[in-house]
Amino acid sequence: MPEYIQHEHDVLVIGAGGAGLRAAVEASAAGVKVAVITKSLLGKAHTVMAEGGIAAALANTDDRDNWRVHFADTMRGGQYLNNWRMAELHAKEAPQCVRELEAWGALFDRTPDGRILQRNFGGHRYPRLAHVGDRTGLEMMRTLQDHGIHLGLDVFMEYTVVSLMKDGDRVVGAFGYDRERGRFHLFRAKAIVLATGGIGRAYKITSNSWEYTGDGLALAYNAGAGLQDMEFVQFHPTGMIWPPSVRGILVTEGVRGDGGVLRNKEGRRFMFDSIPPLYAGQTADNEEEGWRYTQGDKNARRPPELLTRDHVARCIRQEVREGRGSPHGGVFLDIAWIKERIPNAPEHIKKKLPSMYHQFKQLADIDITAVPMEVGPTTHYMMGGVRVDAESQMSDVPGLFAAGECAAGLHGANRLGGNSLSDLLVFGKRAGEYAARFAKEHSQGKVNPDELAAEERRALKPFENEGAGPYAIQYELQDTMQDLVGIVRTEDEMLRALHKIEEFKTKAEHAGVSGHREYNSGWHTALDLQNLIVVSELVTRAALERKESRGAQFRDDYPTKSDGYSGFNIVVFKGPSGEASLRREPIPPMPDELKQIIQEMK
Ligand SMILES: Cc1cc2nc3c(=O)[nH]c(=O)nc-3n(C[C@H](O)[C@H](O)[C@H](O)COP(=O)(O)OP(=O)(O)OC[C@H]3O[C@@H](n4cnc5c(N)ncnc54)[C@H](O)[C@@H]3O)c2cc1C
Predict the structure, then answer these.
(1) Beta strand pairing status for 154-157 and 159-167?
(2) Based on the number of CB atoms within 10 Å of its own CB, is 449 exposed (0-12), middle (13-18) or buried (19 or more)?
(3) How many whole angstroms separate alpha carbon 205 and alpha carbon 203?
(4) How far is the CA of 234 from the centre of ligand 1 (A)?
(5) Interval 121-161: pLDDT, tens
(6) DSSP structure class, residue 282
């Protein structure tokens, strides 16, 4: 008989970041019993690192903004592969979600007349990001956490879920372990919300925390849910590149929003050389106009440094490849130059970007108010994830919901900065509401003890294995994804990656760990590794299937966008023998009203 501790709730939320906490708050407010599980401590989820802000058309800083412009910006950023209904709901509901957060105690930066201040960000036509300096995620987490605790959530900290349990088609529980003691737990629930974040740890250079091992995606996929848009992995253009120990740590887009410029080693602002036609009408064609935009001139167009992330990342890569990069293989991001334009620039920079100032000072001994930073692309965000229904966030598996970075649809081929935090609020709320509704309409399901015993055996297998340890395999996998399925992709390289991934599967199957079950990070890594391998394979297969360049996917062998690939999303299911089964899922026709908005905003 398996040995485990049992818990029973109406709604179980896996993940305590912005999406998970927002879902839990909503479900709890609907009067059902809610538990939240997190791999780390409450308040430490990845959302806490979010810097720049929450995108919402509040129109506080520029009164021309409204949900229609936000909708059009999001669709253009996503290269029209977005779930248009999600983009519509998101643009309409984000302002109210931000106000709600404010009502629960979030302290945003303010306009002179006391409203929530909004800043510029890439791909957003108007200043749209509600923020708290460059520590917005911290404020969001603090607020949601306080609110949730008062609603009486049960929080399980330092627990990891390793599989979902089903009763027929329906999901009815989650099996996992507590990291401290290594004991097994069964969480029975009528509805489950996945809010586990992204997959950044599949790559060597990433801004993502250790928790980002694609668990939610693998859990959903193994339980029979479809995953969508797996080819679209966002590489943020500006991560730290020096010293090596800090490589990948994010440098917020807020630096560019506040006037920071990108230069190559010749001192040239290379972003003016390459403005895509889709954005030509909205982008400044001279430095003066770009500067005026960052200072709030409503008649100026945004500087090319604020083009979408995929584009800026590729331009940086090109500068480096063609020998015009900085000494450590990136380019220069300069905010110090604004001293030529405004008095007290160092104080201004420290006030607007306090975390960036400290990050560079402490980690690289660089004073960003005096000299430029060296930056380069870093794996940042997963547009792909669990396929969900736009209204309810339910996946293909009844009772299983997903929200936040682990869900797909809103961002299409590329996410705009700031649209993740708003995504967490809008769709976290919806997932919580519909999960509670589902829980009220269903009773607890039955968990099959044989399946539970099999899961327990699988989880303990690394202790019996005698193969190499999991860390070496994980590093090799990260190198493979970085080198062969990175910013620029080709068929040959991706086929090589698939071949290696097959080898990693075998190695991971036999990966051995020693010691006991208490705080055994080798054991934890051996289990996480299986998820990383699943998502790495699916990213590679989807990227091979999309024979074009669009948004975050750039294929050197198919360098242009193809009309033939504009009408569908790639969705992958686990086939009967465990194989990945890919489908091209047509995007439903958009209503005329939304089409018209896109036409008007072109
Ligand atoms: C440095 C940085 C800055 C950013 N800045 C911004 C910004 O300014 N604006 C913006 O919109 N976006 C920003 N982003 C992106 C944004 O922060 C993330 O997309 C977002 O926070 C994801 O939130 P989430 O709730 O989906 O997941 P997370 O906040 O990552 O939470 C995931 C939770 O799931 C738990 N979990 C995972 N797997 C398991 C498991 N197997 N069992 C149990 N629990 C599990 C984790 O422990 C964690 O609690 C930034 C990202 C980074 C890295």
Answers:
(1) unpaired
(2) exposed
(3) 6
(4) 14
(5) 889 999 999 999 889 999 999 999 999 999 999 999 999 99
(6) G
Distances (CA, A) of 2 to 172, 185, 254, 492: 18, 10, 51, 46
What are 410's two structure tokens? 């809103």
Q: Looking at this protein, which amino acid is placed at residue 409?
A: G
Q: Which tens digits make up the pLDDT trace of 322-348?
A: 999 999 999 999 999 999 999 999 999
Place of tokens 């797996």: 230
CA 262 to chain CA centroid, nearest Å: 24
Ligand 1 neighbourhood includes 214 CB (under 6 angstroms): no
Distance 563 CA to ligand 1 centre (A): 33
- Tokens 């360049």 found at: 549
Quote the ligand 1 centre to 4 CA distance (angstroms).
29
**Shortest-distance atom of ligand 1 to CA 136:** 8
Average pLDDT over residues 573-593: 97
Percent of the chain scoring above 70 in pLDDT: 100
Q: For all residues of the chain together, what is the average pLDDT?
A: 96
Tokens encoding 199: 């997959």
Q: Which two tokens stand for residue 177?
A: 């372990």
The tens digit of pLDDT for each residue in 473-532 reads 999 999 999 999 999 999 999 999 999 999 999 999 999 999 999 999 999 999 999 999
Res 2: pLDDT: 55
Quote the pTM value.
0.95
Ligand 1: nearest atom to the Cα of 19: 25
Q: Is the pLDDT of residue 1 over 60?
A: no
- Which token pair is 56? 């919402």
200 lines ligand 1 (CB under 6 A): no
Strands (E), 329-383: 331-334, 373-382
> Is the beta carbon of 379 within 6 A of some atom in ligand 1?
no
Nearest ligand 1 atom to alpha carbon 213 = 38
Assess whether the C-beta atom of 209 lies below 6 angstroms from ligand 1: no
Structure tokens at 66: 């409204």
Pocket test for ligand 1, best of 44, 46, 135, 386 (most atoms within 8 A of CB): 46
Among 566, 200, 164, smallest CA distance to 406 is for 200
d(CA 4, CA 178): 11
Closest CA to 356 of 343, 345, 369, 344: 369
Strand arrangement of the beta sheet that strand 331-334 belongs to: 233-240, 373-382, 331-334, 261-263
Q: How far is the CA of 197 from the centre of ligand 1 (A)?
A: 5
Q: pLDDT category, 51, cuts 50, 70, 90? A: confident
- Using DSSP, state whether 488 is helix, strand or coil: strand
Alpha-carbon distances, residue 534 vs 5, 215, 459, 504, 528 (angstroms): 28, 9, 16, 10, 10
Instruction: Indicate which residues carry an active-site annotation.
Output: 236, 256
Say how far residue 318 (Cα) sits from the centre of its chain: 25
Q: How many residues does the chain have?
A: 602
Q: How confident is the model at residue 415 (pLDDT cuts 50, 70, 90)?
A: very high
433 CB less than 6 Å from ligand 1?
Answer: no
Centre of ligand 1 to C-alpha 40, Å, is 12
Q: From 37, 196, 203, 380, give the residue whose CB has the most ligand 1 atoms within 8 Å, as the site to mutate.
A: 196
CA angle at 264 for the pair 262 and 268, rounded to the nearest 5°? 80
